[in-house]
Amino acid sequence: MQLCFYADALEALTGRVPSEMHLWLGSGVSESLRVEEFRPYWRRLRRQLATLLDQDDITETRPEPCTHCDYCEFNPLCDAQWRNEDSLVYVANIRTPERHALEREGVRTVVELSTRAGSVPELHDENLERLVRQAALQVTSREHPKSAGL
Fold first, then answer.
1. Residues sharing a CB contact under 8 Å with residue 12, sequence separation 6 or more, in sequence order
2. How far apart are CA 68 and CA 75, in angstroms?
3. Which structural domain, as residue segments, surrounds residue 47?
4. How many other C-beta atoms can be found within 10 angstroms of the C-beta atom of residue 99?
5. Quick one: pLDDT at residue 146?
């Protein structure tokens, strides 16, 4: 996709579509690619994106934790959103499928989980109990930081 973007940029700058683009690979080998072989793919992606952006019913997006969070430039924004929402991502030892199951049942915050009394169809009762206890400990430690270590 980066080559596609560069091809468009070169066309905008020079008025001509480049015929080939060249990649220097980490192995030291140079690879030449014909722009017209990958440009239709790029046009299709751009059309799909434009169609999506033109829709009125675009739903809100939410950050999802992943293995790259520690290195991502957007991590501070995601972290701020999760903190502001009191997100379940901060429940110690919660697994992604458990978090998603809880969210589908309307449990979206640590506080809501800490007082959850009913079952969650996709979770074993023991796992739910563990998560509720953990969330309750975390809520207590936020509300009473000095007594949390007792």
1. none
2. 9
3. 2-54
4. 20
5. 76
